[in-house]
């Protein structure tokens, strides 16, 4: 793990159950990639139907209101991929929008999930949501603290 990176903290619940990581974001985060301080262990399986973005207040930028989901700060220092799980998810109306382009639902290595807010046109004045990553860790996953 690179110096200065937070450690991955997993809940050891003793059985394989669905766990989640939520990353809140607003219109003020336009152009930013927000990284979770908590990681997902390699080998975990994302639960695709319930992994995505929950738009709680519609974004109102003039011509584009989209969200990307990916990862930033992989533990093994391989390049970030801010749209690995989803590209251009619609954020212009209140809804849950599931991930749209995952090649595999297995997490390739320990990683930190991320959300990128991309608004264009007239500046947005409203918009709030949460990226939601649901996953099931392998039963033999070691806990890193």
Descriptors:
145 residues; mainly beta; five-stranded antiparallel beta sheet; 9 strands; four-stranded antiparallel beta sheet
Summarize the structure.
This protein has strands at 18-26, 33-35, 45-46, 52-57, 64-71, 81-90, 95-98, 113-120, 128-136.
SSE order and pairing:
Elements: E1 18-26, E2 33-35, E3 45-46, E4 52-57, E5 64-71, E6 81-90, E7 95-98, E8 113-120, E9 128-136
Antiparallel strand pairs: 1-9, 2-8, 3-9, 4-7, 4-9, 5-6, 5-8
Report on this model:
The chain has 145 residues and is an all-beta fold. Helices cover 0% and strands 41% of the residues. The protein has one domain. The protein has strands at 18-26, 33-35, 45-46, 52-57, 64-71, 81-90, 95-98, 113-120, 128-136. The strands form 2 sheets. Strands 1, 3, 4, 7 and 9 form a 5-stranded antiparallel sheet that branches. The termini are close together. The mean pLDDT is 85.
